[in-house]
Design a protein that fits this description.
heterodimer, A: 857 residues, alpha+beta, 6-stranded mixed barrel, 5-stranded antiparallel sheet, 26 helices, 23 strands, B: 269 residues, alpha/beta, Rossmann fold, 6-stranded mixed sheet, 4-stranded antiparallel sheet, 22% strand, ATP hydrolysis activity (chain B), nucleotide-binding (chain B), AAA+_ATPase (chain B), ABC_transporter-like_ATP-bd (chain B)
Chain lengths: 857, 269
């Protein structure tokens, strides 16, 4: 019997190939994203690892300052390793076991390509560094000047890494403009005297090397090195040297070469992780939604096979055998889907890799790594999800009574929805409470609360949607199907005939579009808040911002702008970094009278910022318990202290948070080599032609390569555009949700049509035209789609609204905005998808012969 | 290929054209070795306002004859017509409209849409056609069939007899040229059967409706004015005014002496 049951299962699969394909497809959608994510990230990290394995060869120990991160405005938070340390190592060379000392000088910079525009790096940094001649290098093979070039010598000569030179169309002998990002450096011209083949040359990374003396003056304050690399004498291991150095200089970060390489790898892997998360999020959507499609399919298959199963039971098949038979079908479908998913996922990863390297980022093009992790995850998840979704239908199948074989089968799943609905109501109430609590608070914990509420809502929807389907689809049907008369009524009653099935079918859209609505609400709220903040708070008609890797403006830019005809004054907003009571803080310092360029809503004190004064937002004042007149001491990252007195408190705003410091204090805290501006606010002379002055400013600052001059409106728009780019992921999710939803609807409708064959035949017999049959199916599909979309939109907007409220912690004055355009577009898209999904089932239904109503199945 | 004049065996009582007619109607399934002749050139006319029962053993072709006459199936040879409309050569759309506008159906089972109420089921063909329901006529039919208090009920809330009565009402309300019943009482107990048959009888007597039913139940056939017997795809008897006993007797005779040893399709009656 066992083998017979297996035969029945397998033959049953083979007999319904189309149904099989649709079910497999829903498994494929989920698993392919899992496989794609894992394969893509392991391929990328493998290629990067290969590249970074060649970095810092020969380095036994590296000394660098504890924090080398560049701050938000491009300044380095530390001056580096002082010359005194280098001298001390030099003195104690023998005692420490050091053979070679190589100090490095480096900083971010901007380099012009052959057309005078900044070299595009696709997100990779552009560094300026010191050239280490082969004779002094720890790894003589680490960097080699290609034939035809030579080492740089003097302040106007430099070498460039080969791949960057190719991208920038620069050759040996070319002259080009360069700007160091921070400090008082002005643009200057260098001659490329050589191209370098260097380790780690990949993905848009750009490095220009100068001789050590030049690099030291360009990139540091002249008495520090960015880092020092040491080679040990024979007999002293890297670890030993590291321990000795660590003991001697405890205030620095001391690493072995291996650790440096690992740090590089970790950095790139954490960057790759973002791709991984996005792809895995897609996989999760695909799988969760796929689960419902698979569940639906198996439910309907079982319903249609009731008589067959009953016959098997009547002739002696046990309940376990029936159960196993259905489960076997699920395993076969899951396995098959996962294998196809693995293949599709590999293609997905290859496509993504090709796409990214074609966008000029020059990601390494290693061969695809289809590791065991990807294969196992893909197969296990695929099979588990499929079998889990089939458990309930299989159990139902095993309960079929043998007498069913003799009866007219009743295929409607009429089991009570009471328990599900009660669970749903309880969960919905709890979720609503969680959402309300979250929305009334702000910050991380409030956002977490909203997240919990959102999760609860999703589960509540899963449980409660069948109970909702009848009234909601019914009401929708009354409105939408009215113009179609009887056909509309038939579509409407068909859509609510089996609410469980309708709900499971619509869930694909509900979940996908819920995410779309959440992100859409966030995006719309951010946009409107930025818009409002810029319009309300900025008085300056023109602004200059930096577009380089650090987003900072060299301070010299403001001096250039001041010279332009028609410019009345420039107020630079400097970035300030430091610590307050041992905690890292960051704020701003305006170069002049801030009230001239921005609207400050004063709450207390004076808005006139004294050189050693501090203007603070009410939010920061509350956080640090500051009051007017109070003295506050900031400490810079390298020990300098500045005490300021709070002169005024203003109303928290998106642009001016958290505080503004007087200039004298700023200069005390920030050495010249680290100064950088966040934005230049430009006031014009009375009656000056704004557009003409803007053009003149652009001309005057063009040589800085990374200065963007915008009107207030342009600034607001371009900020909004950045948000739009982030929302691209949203459209990806929308697309995926719609594709899966279409598959699910096709599946459900196709099986429903088979189920209702006799009814459709009867309708054809009493005079329903083929096109009327089709139209009825389309309408039914549209009703299901809009039900799903509506549910998703409503919940998504509510959750998004709550989430935005929690963002008040980080973005002053943010208020939730409902993206009506997105909502409307999505509902229309859902309706269109409904029709598309119904095309094929509709045609099948219309082909039903009237005689099939009379024929005995 | 054939015309009424070439069919002298058909009795033509009135000057009026028949409500439905078949001329040399043949239906062949399969080909070569497995060919099955379901109908072998049947010619028959159904007069207006008459109640006809088509009888015959399983596989005699009685259902096929009705399906071809009612535009549910197409004949291989010969012609069928409803009123003055010839069915041969009609495309699916024309055929559907013909069924909708000229024919009423009462099937053995699955007559009603389960999600619609009795009233909605009755007006379904008219609604699909976008036609107005004749309120007075509807009321008269519903009243006559005793369905007035069941109109708001779903099929699942009706008894078997009531379901068939609703189907009759649906067939009548469009005032079709002819009503076809395919074993309309096949699933009913004898009391409900009698109820439905007397309703069909009454529609002929009271509303001058033409009714043709296919049945293998002599008692059902006895309600008819005229009984046509089919065996092996041919008409073997065509009589009026038969009693139940007469029909039993003839059927027994038919079973004992099958007229022709030709294989017939396994049909669903």
């Amino acid at each position: 019997m066992a083998s017979t049951m297996r035969k029945v299962s397998l033959r049953n699969l083979a007999a319904h190939k189309l149904r099989l394909i649709l079910t497999v497809l829903s498994v494929v959608l989920g698993t392919s994203f899992i496989a794609g994510a894992l394969i893509f990230t392991s391929t990328m990290s493998n290629s990067f690892n290969g590249i970074f394995d060649k970095v810092a060869i020969g380095v036994d120990t590296q000394i660098s300052p504890k924090t080398t991160d560049t701050n938000a405005y491009g300044g380095v938070e530390s001056l580096g390793v002082p010359d005194s340390v280098i001298q001390q190592i030099q003195r104690d060379k023998d005692k420490l076991g050091v053979a070679q000392i190589v100090p490095g000088y480096q900083s971010m910079m901007t380099i012009a390509d052959s057309k005078g525009k900044a070299i595009q790096t696709g997100g990779a940094p552009t560094m300026g560094a010191s050239w280490v001649p082969k004779t002094q290098a720890l790894d003589p093979d680490g960097a080699t000047i290609l034939p035809g070039g030579r080492a740089p010598n003097g302040p106007h000569e430099a070498v460039l890494n080969e791949s960057a030179a190719k991208r920038a169309d620069l050759k040996v002998g070319s002259r080009t403009k360069v700007v160091v990002s921070a400090g008082n450096a002005k643009p200057f011209e260098v001659k490329i005297v050589g191209l370098v083949d260097m380790a780690g040359d990949t993905s848009g990374y750009t490095e220009m090397d100068f001789d050590a003396a030049t690099a030291k003056t360009l990139f540091t304050d002249g008495s520090h090195a960015s880092m020092v690399q040491l080679g040990a004498v024979k007999g002293v291991s890297a670890d030993t040297l590291k321990q000795r150095i660590n003991k001697e200089f405890p205030g620095y970060k001391v690493q072995t070469g291996d650790e440096v390489r690992q740090e590089n790898k970790d950095a790139i892997n954490s960057f790759l992780q973002i791709f991984n998360y996005i792809l895995l999020a897609f996989a999760a959507i695909g799988l969760i939604v796929g689960t419902f499609i698979i569940y639906n399919t198996f439910s309907m298959i079982v319903a249609q096979r009731v008589r067959e199963l009953a016959l098997l039971r009547a002739i002696g098949a046990g309940r376990g055998q029936v159960l196993r038979s259905v489960m076997l079908e699920a395993v076969v479908v899951g396995l098959f889907g996962s294998i196809v998913g693995l293949g599709v996922g590999t293609g997905l990863a290859a496509g993504l890799q090709a796409l990214l390297s074609s966008t000029g980022t020059g990601l390494p093009s290693g061969s695809l790594v289809v590791g065991p992790a990807a294969i196992i995850a893909c197969l296990v998840v695929g099979v588990v999800v499929t079998t889990v979704s089939a458990i309930a239908p299989a159990r139902r199948a095993s309960r079929v009574a043998p007498v069913e074989a003799m009866r007219e089968s009743q295929t409607d799943g009429a089991a009570s929805l009471k328990v599900r609905t009660i669970i749903a109501i309880v969960l919905a109430v709890l979720s609503a409470v969680a959402l309300a609590i979250g929305a009334s608070g702000k910050g991380g914990n409030a956002a977490l609360m909203v997240g919990i509420g959102a999760l609860g809502t999703i589960i509540a929807v899963v449980c409660g949607a069948p109970a909702l389907a009848r009234p909601v689809v019914g009401a929708l049907g009354l409105v939408l199907a009215k113009p179609f008369g009887k056909l509309g009524q038939l579509a409407r009653t068909n859509a609510i005939r089996n609410p469980r099935r309708t709900a499971a079918t619509a869930f694909a859209l509900t979940l996908g579009l819920m995410l779309v609505a959440i992100i859409g609400t966030l995006g719309a709220s951010f946009k409107s808040t930025i818009d409002r903040a810029v319009n309300d708070e900025v008085k300056a008609p023109i602004m200059a911002i930096g577009t380089g890797g650090t987003g900072a403006l060299p301070p010299a830019v403001s001096k250039e702008i001041k010279k332009v005809d028609g410019v009345d004054s420039v107020i630079s907003i400097h970035g300030v970094e430091g610590t307050l009571n041992g905690k890292e803080v960051g704020g701003n310092s305006p170069s002049g009278d801030l009230t001239k360029a921005a609207n400050i809503k004063l709450v207390k004190g004076s808005s006139k910022l004294t050189p050693n004064g501090l203007l603070t937002s009410d939010k920061a004042a509350k956080k640090y318990h500051w009051s007017v007149g109070e003295k506050v001491t900031f400490t810079s990252h390298f020990g300098k202290k500045a005490t300021v007195q709070v002169v005024g408190i203003y109303k928290s705003s998106a642009l001016l948070d958290p505080w503004q410091m007087g200039n004298a204090a700023y200069e005390k805290l920030t050495p010249p080599s680290m100064r950088a501006d966040y934005v230049d606010l430009i006031m014009l002379d009375d009656g000056a032609d704004s557009a003409a002055v803007q053009q003149k400013i652009e001309d005057a600052t063009g040589s800085y390569l990374t200065v963007k001059v915008q009107t207030k409106e342009e600034f607001a728009n371009s900020s909004a555009q950045q948000i739009n780019q982030m929302l691209v992921v949203l459209y990806g999710m929308l697309g995926l949700a719609l594709i899966i939803a279409v598959l699910g609807i096709i599946n459900t409708l196709a099986l429903s049509v088979v189920e209702r064959k006799r009814e459709i035949g009867m309708l054809r017999a009493v005079g329903m035209l083929r096109k009327q049959v089709r139209r009825t199916i389309y309408l039914e599909s549209v009703l299901i789609s809009i039900f799903g979309a509506l549910l998703g939109m409503v919940l998504g907007v509510i959750i998004g609204w709550c989430l935005v409220r929690t963002f008040r912690e980080w973005m002053a004055g943010i208020t939730p905005v409902v993206p009506w355009g997105t909502v409307l577009f999505t509902l229309v898209a859902a309706a269109v998808c409904g029709v598309l999904a119904a095309l094929w089932p509709g045609i099948r239904a219309a082909r039903t012969k009237p005689l099939e109503a009379i024929a005995d199945v | 290929m054939s015309n009424p004049a070439a069919a002298p065996e058909v009795a033509r009582e009135a000057q009026q054209p028949p409500a439905a007619a078949a001329y040399k109607l043949a239906k062949v399934y399969g080909k070569g070795e497995t060919v099955v002749h379901a109908l072998r050139g049947v010619s028959v006319e159904f007069a207006e306002g008459e109640f006809t029962a088509i009888m015959g053993p399983s596989g005699s072709g009685k259902s096929t004859l009705m399906h071809c006459l009612a535009g549910l199936d197409t004949a291989s040879f010969g012609t069928a017509q409803i009123g003055s409309t010839e069915l041969t050569g009609l495309n699916d759309k024309q055929m559907t409209k013909l069924r909708r506008d000229l024919i009423g159906f009462v099937f053995q089972s699955f007559n009603l849409v389960p999600t619609l109420t009795a009233r909605e089921n009755i007006t379904l063909p008219l609604d699909i056609a976008g036609k107005k329901v004749d309120k007075e006529w509807m009321d008269a039919v519903v009243d006559r069939l005793g369905l007035a208090d069941r109109l708001g009920h779903r099929p699942s809330e009706l008894s078997g007899g009531q379901v068939q009565r609703v189907a009759c009402a649906r067939a009548l309300v469009g005032r079709p040229q002819i009503i076809f019943g395919d074993e309309p009482t096949g699933n009913l107990d004898s009391r409900s059967s009698a109820e439905v048959l007397s309703i069909l009888r009454a529609t002929v007597d009271d509303f001058k409706q033409t009714v043709v039913i296919v049945t293998h139940d002599p008692r059902a056939a006895s309600y008819a004015d005229r009984v046509i017997f089919l065996a092996d795809g041919q008409i073997v008897n065509d009589q009026r005014g038969l009693s139940t006993d007469d029909i039993y007797e003839y059927m027994k005779h038919l079973d004992e002496h099958p007229p022709a040893p030709v294989p017939v399709p396994d049909e669903q009656d």
